[in-house]
Amino acid sequence: MIIFISIIAFVSSNVDDIMLLTLLYAQSKNRYERKNILIGQYIGIFTLVSISLIISTILVKSTDIPVNWLGIIPIALAVKEMTQKDTGTDQTTIKITFLQVAMLTVASGADNIGVYVPIISQQSPKETFIFCIIFALMVPLWSLLGYFIGNIPVIQKTIRKHEHLIIILIYLLLGIWILVN
To answer: Between the chain's N and C termini, which has fewer beta carbons within 10 Å?
Structure first.
């Protein structure tokens, strides 16, 4: 049962992450950047699960944990992006780093924490270990899905043509959504 619950928890809390992965993979220009996306996803998901473990073991009685402040991170990235000149079709100045991906994953993960904490707080240590293993297996599958969607020619062409504006809008909307929720 814990395997099924873990898969459902991962998928339901990371549907919004597919848009982010699609955008990142559509922008990636080489194997190094694609590897950074996967590493960043692992770091981000591991961070969210770790935060959830800490909250569920130490602060499980508290219901007013302000995780919405994480919305500041994508807003700051949007502001940074706005200050950079739009290079149009020249893609050489944008680099995808694993740290950027990890920060975006964590910043968009307030809802993830809200899903993981109740599940983890009701599990035995063995079940929590299985939960973490399932998540570790789901990250590359989720990244692969984002990669395939991001490499559909019409999606990739649209994202690359308008990527500067799309990045700003996604960062801003994501940040505002996290702050409000």
So the answer is: N
Q: CA 56, CA 168: separation in Å to the nearest integer?
A: 34
Separation CA 83–CA 81 (nearest Å): 5
Q: DSSP per residue over the chain, as a string?
A: -HHHHHHHHHHHHSHHHHHHHHHHHHH--SHHHHHHHHHHHHHHHHHHHHHHHHHHHHSTT-----GGGGGHHHHHHHHHHHHSPP-TT--TT----HHHHHHHHHHTTHHHHHHHHHHHHTS-HHHHHHHHHHHHHHHHHHHHHHHHHHTSHHHHHHHHHSHHHHHHHHHHHHHHHHHH-
Half-sphere exposure of 48 (CA within 13 A, CB side): 31
pTM of the full structure: 0.72
**Sign of the CA dihedral with 40 first, then 43, 44, and 45 last:** positive
Task: Please check whether residue 163 is in contact with residue 93, taking contact to mean a CB–CB distance below 8 angstroms.
Answer: no
pLDDT (tens digit per residue) in 110-166:
778 877 887 887 788 999 999 999 999 999 999 999 999 888 989 878 877 886 787
**Residues in CB range of 40: below 8 A, 6 or more apart:** 97, 98, 99, 100, 101, 102, 104, 105
